[in-house]
User: Which sequence fits this backbone?
C-alpha cells in the first residue's frame, strides 16, 4: 500500500463498512482483524438477545473505529 489515502486503504475501509475487520484482513493485519471482528460480533450478538441491549453502542464504536483504522493505515516502517 502506498500510504494513507491510497486506493488500497479506501477499499479496506469499504470492506470494513460491511464486515468489521475485513479491511484489516485485506491489509494483512490478522490480529487487528480478529480483534475488531470478535468485539463487534459479540456486542452485536448480545445486543440482539435483548437482554444486553445496552452493548450495541460499544459495537458501533468499534465498527466505526475499524473503518477509520483501515483508512488511516500507513503500513510498516512509517
Assistant:
Amino acid at each position: 500500500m502506498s500510504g494513507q489515502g491510497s486506493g488500497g486503504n479506501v477499499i479496506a475501509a469499504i470492506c470494513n463498512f460491511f464486515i468489521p475487520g475485513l479491511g484489516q484482513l485485506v491489509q494483512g493485519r490478522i490480529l487487528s482483524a480478529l480483534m475488531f471482528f470478535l468485539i463487534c460480533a459479540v456486542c452485536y450478538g448480545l445486543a440482539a438477545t435483548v437482554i444486553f441491549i445496552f452493548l450495541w453502542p460499544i459495537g458501533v464504536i468499534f465498527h466505526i473505529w475499524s473503518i477509520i483504522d483501515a483508512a488511516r493505515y500507513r503500513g510498516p516502517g512509517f
Observations:
- The two ends are 12 Å apart (CA to CA).
